[in-house]
Amino acid sequence: MKHKLIILGSGESGVGAAILGKKQGYDVFVSDGGTIKQAYKQELTDSGIEFEEGQHSKERILAANEVMKSPGIPEKNELVKMIRAKNIPVISEIELAYRFKGNSKIVAITGSNGKSTTTALTYQICKTAGLDCAMVGNIGISFAKQVAQDPKEVYVVEVSSFQLDDIKDFRADIAVLLNITEDHLDRYDYRFENYINSKFRVIENQTKEDYFIYCLDDEVITKKLPLLTIHTNPLPFSMKQEVKKGGYIKGDQMMLRIQEERVSMSIYDFALKGKHNNYNTMAAGIAAATLGIRKEKIREAVKNFHSLEHRMEFVAMVRGVEFINDSKATNVNSTWFALESMNKPTVLILGGTDKGNDYGLIADLVKEKVKAIVCMGVDNKKIIEAFKDIVPVIVETDSAKKAVNASFKMSQKGDVVLLSPACASFDLFKNYEDRGTQFKDAVKEL
């Protein structure tokens, strides 16, 4: 009897898992309650994989040996409850990819903020050093699809808490935990502790051969660590104290100390600017040094790195007004980092699907730097309530085009218009990329 693998959800991770499962000889069936994108349908058809959309064949699903649940599907989903009640094992896509990755190494990067930037920078260093590597996970191609179609010696994986929720044996050779701030609480019964536990699962299967790179300046991480039994090699990084092993910044110098390798570099040479990016750069540098990459290659990559689309991305200067696309800021903390690096009067575009946001976290920065707020969402009450006594002008809009036009009207030469929504995008857009792209298109039309 073939192993029956049911895939719930047909996004990038679902389709990638289906392709890998099929390649490994599983009996694979993909079920999506919504519609499946044409490109993904084509991939499934080309691979000879059965699928359904707009419905779930419950009987067939509940006869599975194993279910791979897409990260977007919450536990409170009725079908997931039925699967759990029947004790059918539920795994995530990274678990399936891990099962078949062979002797390849995994660098798994997680945290509430800075994951994508750190993943991209780590990958850039690996590529610069000539490693046979791929960047996978939340940031692009599915990990499982990469394993199935083009296996590599090193996988740099951006990992979300949702993917970690359904691991069993997944083990990273190098685990990176950047920070933990309140995010996605709607998926964790509004209990911060549940979310913290989820993030720490990145090290639960690690052994004394592995490495754990983490931020020593993050109180949530340092409070949790003493409560855990850790079997891995800790490599902390800090901007507040020197560490014997790991990385730190003292004055304007970054120092990395891993085994025999010592790397020092001026932070003024970092391609990525801002305090939060100093942390991201240290984490990526330590991960690279742990892989045995020479310091010259680390320096070269860190100097020449280009930031990601939708993450503090310069769009254009229109009549002296600068437009920045930070659509990837889907939580309040990300917006805090964006505002922290602003040094011009700012018109801030906020709003979208609220995830239990506490806007008090950015109140001081808003007071100091923001001259006007443009809301871009279906329901903006919470934002208006939070800032009505701090910001003189708050305007409501319901599209990227209207938000850009309103922002431009309120700006003058020397100002910056910052799209850093602090919310998910699903009320008006397909995803944060779609939101960022519509923002950029509207700016180009000014």
Topology record:
Blueprint: E1 4-8, H1 12-23, E2 27-32, H2 38-46, E3 50-53, H3 58-61, E4 66-69, H4 78-85, E5 90-91, H5 93-99, E6 105-110, H6 115-128, E7 133-137, H7 143-149, E8 154-158, H8 161-165, E9 174-177, H9 192-200, E10 211-215, H10 219-224, E11 233-238, E12 246-250, E13 253-258, E14 261-266, H11 275-290, H12 295-304, E15 313-318, E16 321-325, H13 332-340, E17 346-350, H14 363-369, E18 370-376, H15 381-387, E19 393-397, H16 400-410, E20 416-419, H17 432-444
Parallel strand pairs: 1-2, 1-4, 2-3, 4-5, 6-8, 6-9, 7-8, 9-10, 10-11, 11-12, 16-20, 17-18, 17-20, 18-19
Antiparallel strand pairs: 12-13, 13-14, 15-16
Helix pairs in contact: 1-7, 5-7, 6-11, 6-12, 16-17
Short précis:
The protein has 446 residues and is of the alpha/beta class. Helix content is 35%, strand content 23%.
Fold and architecture overview:
With 446 residues, this protein is an alpha/beta fold. The protein folds into three domains: 4-90, Rossmann fold, CATH 3.40.50.720; 95-304, Mur-like, catalytic domain (UDP-N-acetylmuramoyl-L-alanine:D-glutamate ligase), CATH 3.40.1190.10; 313-444, Mur ligase, C-terminal domain (Protein-Tyrosine Phosphatase, Chain A), CATH 3.90.190. Helices cover 35% and strands 23% of the residues. The protein has helices spanning 12-23, 38-46, 58-61, 78-85, 93-99, 115-128, 143-149, 161-165, 192-200, 219-224, 275-290, 295-304, 332-340, 363-369, 381-387, 400-410, 432-444; strands spanning 4-8, 27-32, 50-53, 66-69, 90-91, 105-110, 133-137, 154-158, 174-177, 211-215, 233-238, 246-250, 253-258, 261-266, 313-318, 321-325, 346-350, 370-376, 393-397, 416-419. The strands form three sheets. Strands 7-8-6-9-10-11-12-13-14 form a nine-stranded mixed sheet, with helices on one face. α1 packs parallel to α7 (143-149), α5 runs parallel beside α7 (143-149) and α16 packs across α17.
